[in-house]
Amino acid sequence: MGNIIEVTPSIIGDDYCDCEDTGVDEIGHSSACAHVLKSDQLFQCGISKPSHLTPLTTLGLDSVLHSKVSDGVCDCCDGSDEEDGKCPNSCGVFFRKAVDLGTARLQQALTGYRQSIIAAEEGSKKLESLRGKKENLLKDRANVFDLANYIEFYLKSESRFQTLPYPRMDYKLQAARLKAVSEGKRSLGGRSEMKKTVDNQLQAILDTKCPTSEFTLEEFLATYSADPADPRRRDDQTSRKRGQIDRTLIAPLIEDPAKLGLRIIGIVVFTPVRSVGLLVEIGSEWMWGVEEEEEEVKEGVQEVGGEKEGGVYVEPTAFEIIKASNPWTPIGFLILLGDLHPALDYRRYKATRVPVNAARRGYRKYVMRPINTMWEAPEVLYNETLNYRDNIATEPDTHEFRLLKAAEAKAEQQKKLIEKKITAAKQEAERDYGALITIESECFSNTVDKYTYRICPLKDVRQDATSLGRFTGWVDDSHTSYFIRGGTKCFGVTEVDENGNNVQVQRRGVVNLKCGLGHSIVSVVENSPCIYEVEFQTPLACNEEEVGRAEERLRGFMKIAESRGGIEVEEEKKGWFGGGGGGDGGARKLEDIKKTAEEVLVVAEGLLPKKEDR
Amino acid sequence: MLLLALLVTLLLHTTNAVDQTKFRTCTQTGFCRRHRNKVPSNTYTAALTSSSPDAPYKFLLHPSKGYTSTHPNLSLTVDPLSNGAVRVRVQENNPETSRWESSDILLPAGLSRCASTTHTSDSSSVTISSTCSSSDPPTNTVISLSPFKITVKQGDETLMSINESQLFHFEHKRDKGGVQAATAEPSDTKADHHNGKKIVGYWEDGLARYEDGTTEVKPVEDASSIPKEDEDGFWEEKFQSHHDTKPNGPMSFGVDITFPQKSTRLYGIPEHASSLALHATRPPPSGSASSQAPKYKDPYRLYNLDVFEYDLDVPMSLYGSIPLLISHSVDTGRVSGAFFNNPSEMFIDIWSGEGMGSHWMVETGVMEIFLLVGGSEVSEVYKQYSSLTGTQALPPMFSLGYHQCRWNYKDEKDVYAVHKKFEEHDYPYDVLWLDIEHTDGKRYFTWDKRFFPNPVKMQQTLWEQGRRMVTIVDPHIKRDNNYYVHKEATAKSLYIKNADGKSDFNGWCWPGDSSYLDFTEEKVRKWWAEQFKLDKYVGSTPHLHIWNDMNEMSVFNGPEVTMQKTTTNLQGVEHREWHNIYGMLFQRATSEGLVLRSGGKERPFVLSRSFYAGSQRWGAIWTGDNAARWDHLAVAGPMLLTINTAGLSFIGADVGGFFGNADSQLMVRWMQSGAYQPFFRGHAHHDSARREPWLFGDEALQMLRQSSMERYALLPFWYTIFHTSSITGMPVMRPLWMEYPTDPNCPALDHQWLIGSDLLVCPVVQENAVKVNCYFPGTNQNWYNVRTMQVQPVPASKWVNLDAPLDTIPVFQRSGSIVPKKLRLRRSTEMMRNDPYTLVVAGESATGELYIDDGHSYDFENGEYAKRRFDYVGGKLTNTKLSGNWGANGTCKDWIERIIFMGVSSKPSSVVTSAGQSLEFTYDKNTLVVRKPELGVVDEWTLEIL
Question: What interface predicted TM-score (ipTM) does this complex get?
Answer without folding.
Answer: 0.84
